[in-house]
Design brief:
Layout: E1 8-10, H1 11-14, E2 15-21, E3 28-33, H2 39-42, E4 47-49, E5 51-52, E6 55-61, E7 67-72, E8 75-76, H3 88-93, H4 104-112, E9 125-132, E10 135-143, H5 147-156, H6 158-163, H7 176-179, E11 182-190, E12 201-213, E13 244-253, H8 262-276, E14 280-285, H9 290-310, H10 334-337, H11 340-350, H12 354-367, H13 381-387, H14 394-413, H15 415-418, H16 423-461, H17 505-510
Parallel strand pairs: 2-6, 13-14
Antiparallel strand pairs: 1-4, 2-3, 5-8, 6-7, 9-10, 10-11, 11-12, 12-13
The structure holds acetyl coenzyme *A.
Length: 515
């Protein structure tokens, strides 16, 4: 709350975003909310100097995101020397299209009388439709090379700065061949038009994806040969069709729609598209935040779990051949513990990035050990440390090997840092990290079980769409808006580099740390 006589105010509070559509007499507000961040516009402190009772109202037409800015205040600071109120129009001009700075009645008239609105469809192609909480939603997508997609994205881009920390708008005036590498997904609700000429679409969120060219791995048996053909002309190569990794760059569900499953639907729509696209090798994410990590883990777990179950993926509790159990093992018997080749094939089939795949696999393998044999269920850890892989109960042995497999991965990822520590510190650090990782998995598993139970209850009473990850369908959850309070990020004391590209289960086998 600002004090009387205080000329500085919180920019996040001062900025009001409203999504509007035509009404009986004049446009009406569908949703109103505040931004999460304004530091890109107003500076790190997110404060605006020089006004009392300031309201900056940023209106967006629900269907095509045509915008309008309206500034009002009770009082403005009178200039004293160099101290002046912030020039709001000048500051906002870098972020909002010129057309938004018209008089409010003019803007309202345009919205009320826009007869083209009733024929509006989102740009690109309809990729998927779904029902959540009894309401209809559609996901449309198209390349940034399409001027309609570009136009809508340009209007939406301010949301990236307002809702994604460190998010920056995409440069849309690059040459077309490079714009084609961007694909934009829009989520819309299909609403009953409030007037005969109004649109039936209302924006929910959007995501941008980008194709990174993937250097193809050569078959080692092939001898490289120089070819004498003509050098390809620029027109012969479509950059949007070269072998690539697809990277999700920006991902946003607007606040009024958050927590209703739209994020999962959007992520799964993107995943479904790339699974069908032979030119895309895997899906990666640029700088995911904690909430996105949770969303991605949830979605990927739903996608992979049925396949793991089908192939009965589990830890072999007896990786040493009989008779060899007496000697002290020196190497991790990874390939005897888990089916490396089958896992590699599943990963490639579902195009999940290696690190992410390892997380989901570890979570699944943990779930296959009864909870009484895990730390969460009160397993006797002191005994396990002594007995190790010789524990009598096979699930104790599984749990022992599960911990070793995770430690192996963590060690590899943080090796450069860990080798600088004394052996005892190294062991302690790795143990702490493992505990944190395990707690994160347990929380995700708990949420997963709760969601499944919730779905089962709903399924008994309704015929809502069901999960079929093999078909990479979108229907991975019913409209459960409740946010899981137990959600924790994979907390790591050893810094885990989350870059998606540099880990492979196969290569884990080659580097075999001592047990
Ligand atoms: C690559 C990037 O762009 S990273 C930036 C991601 N974008 C942002 O942070 C912008 C602001 N936030 C948002 O746009 C949205 O809240 C998103 C994209 C993070 C999530 O979208 P939503 O539609 O709200 O998620 P959805 O309802 O589908 O949730 C699915 C699951 O994701 C996880 N999840 C989603 N949001 C959160 C959160 N804020 N905290 C913890 N877990 C979350 C949960 O597992 C959730 O399942 P549950 O509700 O059963 O617990």
């Amino acid at each position: 709350m600002e004090k009387e006589g205080d000329w500085s105010c919180d920019a996040n509070d001062a900025l009001h975003i409203t999504v509007i559509q035509p009404g009986e007499q004049k446009p009406k507000t569908l949703y109103a909310f505040h931004p999460r961040f304004t530091y890109p516009i107003f500076g790190d402190d997110e404060r605006i100097f020089g006004y009392q009772g300031l309201i900056i109202r940023l209106r967006f037409a629900a269907h095509d995101l045509r915008s309008h800015v309206h500034i009002s205040y009770d009082d403005k600071f009178k200039e004293i020397g160099d101290t002046v109120a912030l020039d709001l129009n000048k500051t906002l001009k870098d972020w909002i299209p010129e057309s938004a700075f018209t008089l409010l009645p003019e803007f309202e008239k345009v919205i009320q009388n826009d007869t083209a609105a009733k024929d509006f469809t989102p740009p690109g192609k309809l990729m998927h439709s779904y029902i959540a909480k009894g309401r209809n939603f559609e996901i449309w997508a198209g390349s940034l090379g399409d001027p309609h997609v570009r136009h809508l994205l340009e209007r939406a881009q301010i949301f990236v700065s307002l809702f994604i920390e460190a998010g920056t708008p995409i440069v849309t005036d690059d040459p077309e061949w490079t714009l084609e590498r961007w694909f934009v997904y829009f989520v819309y609700e299909k609403v009953a038009p409030p007037t005969p000429s109004a649109s039936q679409y209302s924006i929910v969120g959007y995501a941008t994806t980008y194709r990174w060219w993937l250097y193809p791995k050569k078959d080692p048996s092939e001898t490289p040969t120089a070819k004498d053909g003509p050098f390809p002309c620029p027109g012969d190569i479509r950059f949007s069709e070269l072998p690539s990794r697809l990277r999700i760059a920006q991902f946003l569900i607007l606040p009024p729609h958050q927590g209703s499953g739209h994020g999962i639907h959007l992520y799964t729509a993107i995943h479904s598209t790339i699974v069908k696209d032979p030119t895309v090798v895997e899906l990666t994410v640029e700088d995911p935040n904690e909430a996105f990590d949770a969303l991605r883990d949830t979605a990927d777990y739903h996608i992979l779990r049925p396949e793991f179950l089908k192939q009965n993926v589990n830890i072999n509790p007896n990786p040493y051949s009989s008779g060899s159990t007496k000697r002290r093992p020196r190497l991790m018997p990874t390939s005897a513990l888990i089916p490396i080749k089958a896992l590699h094939d599943i990963r490639c089939l579902y195009k999940i990035a290696p690190t992410q795949f390892a997380h989901i696999l570890e979570m699944f393998l943990l779930s296959r050990i009864p909870s009484k044999n895990r730390a969460i269920g009160g397993a006797n850890m002191a005994r396990l440390v002594i007995k190790k892989h010789k524990a009598e109960d096979e699930n104790d042995r599984r749990y022992y090997w599960w911990r070793m497999l995770v430690k192996q991965r963590l060690y590899k990822r943080s090796r450069d840092m860990l080798i600088q520590l004394d052996l005892s510190d190294r062991i302690q650090k790795l143990d702490e990290t493992l505990t944190n990782v395990e707690e994160g998995y347990e929380a995700l598993l708990k949420a997963f079980v709760a969601r499944e139970e919730n779905n089962t209850i709903k399924d008994q009473g309704s015929e809502e769409e069901r999960v079929d990850p093999k078909k990479t369908s979108m229907n991975q959850r019913t409209a459960n808006g409740a946010r899981n309070k137990d959600r924790v990020k994979r907390k790591l004391t050893v810094v885990e580099d989350d870059s998606d590209e540099d880990m492979d289960l196969e290569s884990e086998v080659n580097k075999r740390p001592k047990v």
